[in-house]
Amino acid sequence: MKKIILISIVTTVFVSNIQAQKKMIIPPYLKKGDTIAIVATARKNIDDNLKPAISWLKNWGLEVVIGNTIGLDNNQLAGTDEQRAADFQTQLDNPNIKAIWCVRGGYGTVRMIDFLDFTKFKQSPKWVIGFSDVTVLHSHLNTMGYASIHGIMPVSSKATEEAKESLRKALFGEHLEYTVPCDQMNRFGSAKGELVGGNLSILYSLLGSESAIDCHDKILFIEDLDEYLYHIDRMMMNLKRNGCLESLKGIIVGGMTKMHDNEIPWGKNVLEIIDDVTKKYNIPIIYNFPAGHMADNHSLIMGKQVSIEVNDVESKVVFD
Asked: Is 50 exceeded by the pLDDT of residue 16?
C-alpha cells in the first residue's frame, strides 16, 4: 500500500511539472495580404455598421470575409446556437483565415462553445479577437494552450486611435507595451507571468467548467460593465474561495464601467471591493488600466508572458 501511495505522489508531481513547463502556443502573426473573418458568437448584429472596421483592416493591408452570422436575427442572438457555432467552425477550419474577429459581445458565446471542434485549429492556429462575452473563447483557448487577443471589436466605432493601433500591433507582432499614470489605489511592486482573464462576470460563470482559467503563477486581468457592487464582491469572493487569487503574481484591473448600487449602499466602491478581497496577497495591482468597455480599450495578448511594474509615478505593462 505504501508503494502505491508513493507512486501516486511521484506521478502527480511529474504531471504537475509537465503542466507548469508547457508553453503557450502563439498563433502566427499577420502579414499584409492575410484574411480576417468577422463573425457573431453572441448578440446579433443586423445594422450596416461594419464599414469603419473594414476600412481599418483594408488600411492595414488585410482582406476581409464577413461570416454568415452577420445579419442573422434570433431575438437577442445572431442566429441559433448551431448557426453561430457553424459559422465560427467554418472560419476555424479554413486555413486561409488567419484571424477571427468577433463582431460584438452581449451574451451567447457560452451557448455555442461546446459545439466547436478545434482539431483543425490546432493544425493551423489563428488569432481570435474580442472582449466582454468573448472572454468565453479566451478562457477556453487558454486552457487548450493557445494565445488570443483581448481588444476592440468591429462595432467599437468610438475606439480611440491608440486602441486601434494597439490591435494592429498585436495582430502584426509588433512590440506591445503600455505606460499609464499611477492610480492612488495601486499596490507597488513588479511581477512577470502569463496573462489570463477578461470579463469578470464571464470568468465567474466559467468556474468549475472545462473552460475555467488556471490562475497559478499568472497575472490576472479583469474588467466589467453594468454590474451591482455587491455582485462584484460576490464574484471576487468566488475567485478567492476557488483558490484563483492565492497564487497570482499580479492583477491588472481594467475598466469597471457603469457600476450600480442598491438603495441601501454596499459601502465600498468597486475598486475598494477588489482591494478589500485581495488585501491579504502581497502582489502588485494596477487599477484603472485602459482596457475594457471604454473607447480607449487597449489590446492585451491573453496567454502571453507579460511584465508589470508598479511604482508611485507610473505603471508599466510590457509583453515579451
From this structure: no
